[in-house]
Write a structure and sequence with these properties.
It is a single chain. The chain is of the alpha/beta class and 291 residues long. Helix 4 links the parallel strand 3 and strand 4. It has helices at 3-6, 16-28, 41-55, 76-82, 103-116, 133-141, 154-157, 160-165, 174-177, 185-219, 222-235, 240-253, 261-278, and strands spanning 9-15, 37-39, 60-70, 87-94, 100-101, 122-126, 145-151, 168-172, 181-183. The N and C termini lie far apart (105 Å). It folds into 2 domains: 3-183, 5'-nuclease (Rossmann fold); 188-278, no CATH class. Strands 5-4-3-1-6-7-8 form a 7-stranded mixed β-sheet.
C-alpha cells in the first residue's frame, strides 16, 4: 500500500508578509502598511482550516504554520495567533530597512521535513515568492501534492515559476479575505474623503471648462458660428486656430495643468453647445483693443 493511502493529512503554510501586502491591494486598492488592516486571528484559523477541505478533500487537517518577520520579538498579533489551537507561529526577522529575512528558509525547511517524515500528503501554500520553489519541488519528490494559494490577481502577485511547480492553484477573492481580514474604519473614512475631494475637483474642472468654452464661443464672429458647428457635426473638428485658443485658455483656467483626452473632448463639446445656444446673437467685441 502506497504511503499516501495511509497518510492523509494536510498542512497550511501562510506567508504573512504576502497576505498583508497583497491583501491590502485587494481590499484597499493599494499596498498599505499593516496598521491599515485588522486580522481576526480565530477567523483566519477557521478559514484556512475549512480551505483544506475545499482544496484537498478527504484529508485530515494537521495544522497551520504562520510565518512572519519581527524586529523586536512577537507582536500582540503574533501572540494572539500563538495562543490559538492548530496554529504554529514561526518568526524570522525584519532588518533596519524593513526587509523580511529568514522567513523563506523557515517555510522551505518545514515543508521538506514534514514531507520527508511523511507527516503530510498535501500542502497548501499561501505565498508568491519564487525562492520557495525549491521547497515545493523537494516536497513533491517525497510524494506531497502542493497547492499554491494566491490573492487576486494572483498572476500579478505570485512568481510564474512558483505557480508552474504547483499541483493546483487557487485565488482568494476580496469576499473570502474579508472573512478574517478587514480594512480599518479610519482607512475607509480617509479613502472616502479622498474620493469626495476627487469628485469635487472633477466637478470644478468641468465648470471651468464650460466657462472657457462659452468665453471663446462669444468671441467668434456671428457669421462663423454656424460654420464651426456644421464642421464639428460633420468631421468632429474645430478650426485649428479656435482649438488652440480653447486649449490655451482651459489650461490657464486649470492652473497650468495639461488637459487629458476626456477633458479635451468635454471642452470641445461645450464650445459647440455654446455656439448653438448663442445662435445669431450679436456679441460685443471681447478682445482687448491695442493701445
Amino acid at each position: 500500500m502506497f504511503w499516501r493511502d495511509q497518510v492523509s493529512r494536510a498542512a497550511v503554510f501562510v506567508d504573512a508578509g504576502y497576505l498583508f501586502a497583497q491583501g491590502s491591494v485587494e481590499l484597499i486598492g493599494q499596498k498599505s502598511p499593516r496598521s491599515a488592516l485588522t486580522l481576526d486571528a480565530a477567523a483566519a484559523r477557521n478559514f484556512f482550516r475549512d480551505l483544506v477541505q475545499k482544496v484537498a478533500p478527504n484529508t485530515e487537517f494537521l495544522r497551520i504554520y504562520w510565518y512572519d518577520g519581527t524586529s523586536s520579538g512577537p507582536t500582540p498579533q503574533h501572540l494572539a495567533l500563538m495562543h490559538l489551537d492548530d496554529i504554529k507561529v514561526r518568526l524570522g526577522f525584519v532588518n533596519s530597512v524593513g526587509e523580511q529575512k529568514g522567513v523563506d528558509s523557515l517555510i522551505v525547511t518545514d515543508m521538506i521535513e514534514l514531507a520527508r517524515n511523511r507527516a503530510i500528503a498535501d500542502a497548501l501554500l499561501l505565498s508568491g515568492d519564487e525562492d520557495l520553489r525549491v521547497g515545493v519541488q523537494q516536497a513533491q519528490e517525497f510524494g506531497v501534492r502542493v497547492h499554491i494559494v494566491g490573492i487576486r490577481p494572483a498572476r500579478g502577485s505570485q512568481s510564474l515559476f512558483l505557480l508552474a511547480e504547483a499541483d493546483t492553484t487557487r485565488e482568494l477573492s476580496a469576499a473570502e479575505l474579508t472573512a478574517f481580514l478587514k480594512p480599518n474604519s479610519s482607512v475607509l473614512e480617509l479613502d472616502g474623503r479622498r474620493e469626495d475631494c476627487r469628485v469635487a475637483a472633477a466637478a470644478l474642472a468641468v465648470d471651468g471648462l464650460a466657462d472657457v468654452a462659452e468665453q471663446v464661443a462669444r468671441m467668434q464672429p456671428t457669421q462663423e458660428r454656424q460654420v464651426s458647428v456644421e464642421l464639428f457635426r460633420a468631421q468632429k473638428k474645430i478650426p485649428s486656430s479656435v482649438d488652440r485658443e480653447l486649449l490655451t485658455r482651459a489650461r490657464k483656467a486649470l492652473g497650468g495643468q495639461d488637459l487629458d483626452g476626456h477633458q479635451k473632448k468635454t471642452l470641445r463639446k461645450a464650445f459647440i453647445d455654446a455656439l448653438e445656444s448663442l445662435g445669431d446673437q450679436t456679441e460685443p467685441n471681447t478682445e482687448v483693443p491695442n493701445p
